[in-house]
Amino acid sequence: MKDFNSLFLDTCIFIYFIEKHPEYNEKIAEILEYYLNKNTTFSTSVITHSEFCTMPYRTNNHLNIQQFELLLSQLDIIPIEINRKIADDAAKLRAKYSSLRLMDALQISTAINQNCDAFLTNDRKLQQIIEIQIFIV
To answer: Is the pTM of the predicted complex or chain greater than 0.90?
Structure first.
């Protein structure tokens, strides 16, 4: 794996890890452990909070929300608020990449504004982005 000083975690990383996805859980655990041992700084945004918590709220699965909050704490992540600059930069990304969805643009813009080295996701469509390194699980 390539070393990064800072890594932005997309929502799917939390979902796969907490819900113990049969294909990706172990791989994500290895990635997180590797970067924890390298003292990498992790980031995510409030978008991740909203996207992650939707299904647990819908299914009344408060345990998953507690596990999500615990994982944020263990990784020393305080979700980043979306501000006007992040929103404007997301609009610029969407103008450049016409297939880019708003939530993805906001996530990527947040990562760029936080000066993250890479964006960890499993969304292969995001590999077209050149403004930040996209790291696919």
So the answer is: yes
What is the spatial distance between Cα 21 and Cα 16, in angstroms, rounded to a whole number?
Answer: 5
pLDDT tens by residue, 32-43: 999 999 999 999
Segments in 1-137 forming alpha helices (H): 11-18, 25-37, 46-58, 62-74, 84-96, 102-113
Q: Which residues of 36-50 are buried (b: 16+ CB within 10 A; e: fewer)?
A: eeeebbbbbbebbbe
Residue 65: which residues within 8 A CB-CB, separation 6 or more?
53, 56, 57
Q: Is 1 part of a structural domain of the chain?
A: no
Asked if residue 115 is part of any domain, the answer here is: yes
Residue-range definition of the domain harbouring residue 107 = 6-136
Q: How many domains does the chain contain in total?
A: 1
